[in-house]
């Protein structure tokens, strides 16, 4: 059985002027053959030889073979460059002559020519190969990462309810929970994070912040910089509304209070009724 979107070894059944016909058996019938165009046929190849090929569909929707191998195959996830944006979607360069389509309905953000996007390859309802940015079903859950490991990944989805979904190494399923998300994180961003836990099913929980005792000093320095941007007087204190604190500092109220406490202890600030002054 021919495997669309995958590589497989097939026998050369018959040579013709425009290439060779391949089949799973040396004596495969006409309905069980696929064409390998002449320019793709290996030198000195003859009927009975085996050839490793990749199967996809040509512009006339016929299954065709190539000895060139694409960047991604069906079920695989990776980065592909956008070569063109059209009315029906974006076309991605996957290493073959014919680019692969990323339909608009499979895009999780607007894409632009020249950028790289994280996608998976799948077979659509019309039995054509296509790309999707909805990579969650194609990500693996069997990484070797453990708690406190540092990882790098690509953001492929954001959710106000759950947080930020990340493909670690563009391969493994991970989530930055909502409570760990500060600042603007967008689909397509590359993030460096710390593993905070490994779920029973293998999915990774991440944080883009360091352990509290390490983060406090960084947050304290950040607050000093923010105070300086306000000419030495921050117009709110750690009693301010959490939304105000998050908007101005990209920290939670608890993180802000810890950092302010650190600065106060070290004599770098003084807290007034409605503001924080730098000493």
Describe this structure in words.
It is a single chain. The chain is mainly beta. The chain has three helices and 18 strands. The strands form four sheets. A five-stranded antiparallel β-sheet has the order 3-2-1-4-5, with no helix packed on it. Strands 8-7-6-9-10 form a five-stranded antiparallel β-sheet, with no helix packed on it. Strand 1 (7-16) and strand 2 form a beta hairpin. Helix 1 (212-229) crosses helix 3 (253-265). The mean pLDDT is 90.
What is the strand and helix layout of this fold?
Layout: E1 7-16, E2 19-23, E3 34-37, E4 50-57, E5 63-66, E6 77-86, E7 89-92, E8 100-103, E9 116-123, E10 129-132, E11 150-159, E12 163-168, E13 172-177, E14 190-198, E15 204-207, H1 212-229, E16 233-234, H2 242-249, H3 253-265, E17 269-271, E18 276-278
Parallel strand pairs: 13-15
Antiparallel strand pairs: 1-2, 1-4, 2-3, 4-5, 6-7, 6-9, 7-8, 9-10, 11-12, 11-14, 12-13, 14-15, 16-18, 17-18
């Amino acid at each position: 059985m021919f495997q669309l979107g995958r590589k497989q070894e097939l026998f050369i059944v018959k040579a013709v002027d425009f290439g060779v016909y391949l089949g799973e058996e040396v004596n495969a019938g006409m309905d069980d053959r696929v064409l390998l165009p002449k320019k793709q046929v290996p030198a000195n190849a003859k009927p009975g030889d085996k050839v490793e090929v990749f199967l996809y569909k040509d512009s006339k929707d016929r299954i065709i073979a190539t000895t060139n191998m694409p960047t991604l195959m069906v079920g695989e996830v990776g980065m592909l460059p956008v070569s063109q944006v059209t009315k029906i979607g974006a076309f991605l360069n996957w290493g073959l002559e014919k680019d692969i389509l990323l339909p608009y309905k499979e895009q999780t953000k607007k894409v632009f020519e020249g950028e790289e996007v994280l996608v998976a390859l799948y077979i659509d309802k019309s039995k054509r190969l296509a790309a999707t940015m909805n990579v969650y079903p194609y990500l693996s859950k069997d990484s070797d990462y453990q708690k406190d490991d540092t990882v790098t990944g690509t953001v492929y989805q954001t959710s106000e309810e759950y947080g930020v979904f990340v493909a670690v190494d563009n391969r493994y399923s991970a989530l930055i929970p909502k409570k760990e998300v500060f600042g603007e994180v967008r689909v397509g961003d590359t993030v460096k994070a710390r593993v905070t836990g490994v779920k029973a099913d293998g999915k990774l929980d991440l944080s883009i912040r360091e352990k509290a005792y390490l983060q406090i000093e960084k947050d304290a320095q950040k607050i000093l910089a923010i105070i300086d941007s306000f000419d030495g007087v921050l117009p709110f204190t750690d009693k301010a509304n959490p939304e105000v604190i998050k908007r101005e500092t990209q920290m939670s109220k608890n993180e802000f209070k810890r950092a302010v406490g650190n600065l106060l202890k070290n004599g770098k600030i003084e807290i007034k009724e409605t503001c924080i002054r730098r000493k």
